[in-house]
Write a structure and sequence with these properties.
This protein has 271 residues and is an alpha/beta fold. The protein has two domains: 180 residues, Vaccinia Virus protein VP39 (Rossmann fold, 3-Layer(aba) Sandwich); 74 residues, Orthogonal Bundle (Helicase, Ruva Protein, domain 3). It has a seven-stranded mixed β-sheet with strand order 4-3-2-5-6-9-7, with helices on both faces. Strands 1-8 form a two-stranded antiparallel sheet. The chain is elongated. 34% of the residues are buried. GO terms for molecular function: 16S rRNA (adenine(1518)-N(6)/adenine(1519)-N(6))-dimethyltransferase activity; RNA binding. It catalyses: adenosine(1518)/adenosine(1519) in 16S rRNA + 4 S-adenosyl-L-methionine = N(6)-dimethyladenosine(1518)/N(6)-dimethyladenosine(1519) in 16S rRNA + 4 S-adenosyl-L-homocysteine + 4 H(+).
Length: 271
């Protein structure tokens, strides 16, 4: 039993089921010997299995009590315990080539963790770990289904997402009030999105932020009430009904409209 008291402010729910920890570590079985960064190791229940599997492991932790515990109980991590905030880390400097990310992620920042991974997709070849079940379901949702959302639409063009298994509250100390789940993201072969990536993100977020409305109305803050292409079939649908290719097409329509609007504004300014 750990001597560290979980801190609510850090969203800590320490995993205490060793068999679950072993299963999570095994999600990276195909990458043994390659660099792995564990986020939020806490008391090291997952850490132990990652080390035993022979991974080139480093851990990043912001809780001083956990850091002290890890230094005492895991001497193999000497020089590999990073006292940093994962979301603020300069991963490009630390990992100039391929690496993996794993962890029992704090629920309140799990989406931010995946967006951080997405920023580093040219080197993060696999990311796995435990998150809230509801978030896992959204992340792994098939396009054009009611569960799809911002997270799936932004992550899935670049990663194949697997919902692996569900974990009950009893596997943690303290038990969370929700079910948990383990997911794995594996980098696919896509190198280009086929449209302006920044605009794609804006279109996806705008569409899902008003997901109960048809896109004709949901995208009004971005496109206005009148624009060429408004009669395209996509605008009669809701965001949750679109495939990834639909969102790319929608981004092209949006870009064309914004370019026409800018050109018209510049022409008016020159008159």
């Amino acid at each position: 039993m750990t001597t560290i008291r979980p801190k609510k402010a850090l969203g800590q729910h320490f995993l205490i089921d060793d068999s679950i920890a072993a299963r999570i570590a095994d999600t990276l079985a195909d990458y043994r010997g390659r660099p792995v960064l564990e986020v939020g190791p806490g008391t090291g229940v997952l850490t132990r299995h990652l080390l035993a599997a022979g991974h080139d492991l480093s851990v990043v932790e912001i809780d001083p009590a956990s850091i002290s515990f890890l230094r005492t109980h895991y001497p193999a991590l000497e020089g590999r315990i990073l006292d940093e905030d994962f979301l603020q880390m300069d991963l490009r400097t630390r990992y100039p080539s391929d690496f993996m990310v794993i962890g029992n992620y704090p629920y309140y920042i799990s989406s931010q963790i995946f967006f951080k991974v997405l920023e580093e997709r040219d080197r993060v070849v696999c990311c796995s770990g435990m998150i809230q079940k509801e978030v896992a379901e959204r992340l792994a949702a098939r396009p054009a289904t009611r569960t799809a959302g911002i997270l799936s639409a932004l992550i899935q063009p670049w990663y194949d997402v697997e919902y692996l298994f569900t974990v009950p509250p009893s596997a943690f100390n303290p038990p969370p009030k929700v079910q948990s789940a383990v997911v794995r993201l594996t980098r696919n072969d896509r190198q280009e999105l086929g449209c302006d990536e920044r605009l794609y993100k804006t279109v996806v977020k705008t569409a899902f932020n008003r997901r109960r409305k048809t896109l004709r109305n949901a995208l009004e803050p971005l496109l206005g009430r009148t624009f060429e292409g408004r009669d395209d079939r996509l605008f009669s649908l809701r965001a949750e009904q679109l495939t990834l290719d639909d969102f790319i097409h929608l981004t092209h329509l949006t870009e064309a409209h914004l370019q026409r609007t800018q050109a018209a504004a510049e022409a008016d300014a020159n008159d």
